[in-house]
Amino acid sequence: MRDLRPSFQDIATIDPKSDLWKTDTNACCDMRKVAPLDRVLMPDFDAWITGRKRFHGGARLSLPVVEAGAEGKIKFNPL
Length: 79
Description:
The protein has 79 residues and is α+β, with helices and mostly antiparallel strands. The protein has 3 helices and 3 strands.
């Protein structure tokens, strides 16, 4: 099992009031989703399966089933 939570230090310094999502959604997602996923993926895995769904619309309508991720990793978007 892998722990995918943001670090306590990041929460304390970046979002101590838990309201970052109101002012900077990109920074909030980076701290709560991107950074924890990067910490888990980078040392051990070459690919991962995402939960992004095409039916959510917008830019997700054209998600490829397989795409290049950061650091030469591969992302699978099966939904």
